[in-house]
Amino acid sequence: MTTTNERRLRSVDLARLAGVSTQQIRNYEDAGVLPPAGRTASGYRVFREDHRRALLAFRALLRGYGPVTAAQIMRAVHAGDVPGALALVDAAHAALHEERLALRAAHRALEALAREDPGPLPRAGLRIGEVAGLLGVRTSALRVWEAAALLTPRREPGTGYRVYGPADVRDARLVHALRRSHHPLDRIRPVLEELRREGGSEALRAALTARGEALTARTRAMVAGAGSLSGYLGHLDGSVDGAGPAADGAGSPGAAGPGRQGTDGRDGGG
Fold first, then answer.
1. What band does 265 get if pLDDT is binned at 50, 70 and 90?
2. d(Cα 56, Cα 250) in Å, to the nearest integer?
3. Within a 10 A sphere around the Cβ of 70, how many other Cβ atoms?
4. For 244, phi and psi rounded to 5 degrees?
5. Could you say which of 25, 39, 61, 204 has the lowest number of CB atoms within 10 Å?
6. Do 92 and 65 meet the contact criterion of CB atoms below 8 Å apart?
């Protein structure tokens, strides 16, 4: 929503506002992150309030959605496809929700394992029937879990019989605990991969706690980014009048504001 009496802004004004180079501002315009800029008779770019708000919205989206998705969202907006832009926002939140579900499943599995005291294994290598007896499941269940790549017992040379070591039994207990909580097999696999990568339940618990904190921080960044995007969309359709963080640059790097710079319409490099 541009008016003819709006103050002109240069590339350097926007660059200082966002804490980036003037070349980056030009790259943003070329990539569709910013709406097309006007040009002076001598060919210099002229930016206005729409561009300032678009820049602030994009920089806010960057923190939670990442550069690829943030750019896709802004390009969709400037192509007139607001539903498509919002679908990208929805998809990012849905993916984050899936990460939270997997994290919750891992925590529940660790809690289930902590409540159990399996005691020492009778010997180092167990047959499938012995493992089934320890867990109280059918041997067919162990075969299904193996077919789903959740268990990988070694095979005995010559006979081809499955041999379950301590780590295999641990994995089987974890799968069993999650299956009793009705977790699907594809959601159990990431938990096992984390357990194997971290090397033990305590290390995994610490890793899960750190991941939970990171997810919370990312969620807050996504919410803030979505709010800034909403403010920008409101500006474009005329439903906001310039109030709020998206309008005044609050929280943005180098937010001294372009109003302190010259307004001769030149962008310091075209």
1. very low
2. 9
3. 23
4. 100, 170
5. 39
6. yes
Helical H segments across 79-138, by residue range: 82-115, 128-135
Q: Is 192 helix (H, G, I), strand (E, B) or coil?
A: helix
CA–CA separation, 160 and 90 (whole Å): 49
Is 220 inside any structural domain?
no
Report how far residue 262's alpha carbon sits from residue 67's, in angstroms, rounded to the nearest whole number: 30
The residue range of the domain holding 48 is 11-97+226-260
CA gap 164, 75 in Å, rounded: 53
Q: Is residue 240 part of a domain?
A: yes
- Per-residue pLDDT reduced to its tens digit, 91-142: 999 999 988 887 887 777 777 666 665 556 667 789 999 999 989 999 999 9
The DSSP letter of residue 19 is T
The answer to whether residues 16 and 84 belong to one domain is yes
Single out the residue of 99, 65, 66, 128 nearest to residue 194, CA to CA. Answer: 99
Give the whole-angstrom CA distance, residue 232 versus residue 58. 10
For residue 110, being part of any structural domain is answered with: yes
Which of the two residues, 169 and 109, has the higher pLDDT score? Answer: 169
Number of domains in the chain: 2
Instruction: State percent of the chain over pLDDT 70.
Output: 79
Specify the residue for token string 């309008």: 247
Q: How many CB atoms lie within 10 A of CB 102?
A: 20
Q: One-letter amino acid identity for 203?
A: A
How many angstroms separate the CA atoms of 70 and 75, rounded? 9
Based on the fold, state whether residues 121 and 202 are members of the same structural domain.
yes
Q: Tens digit of pLDDT for each residue in 226-262?
A: 999 999 999 998 865 544 444 444 344 333 333 333 3
256 lies in a domain?
yes
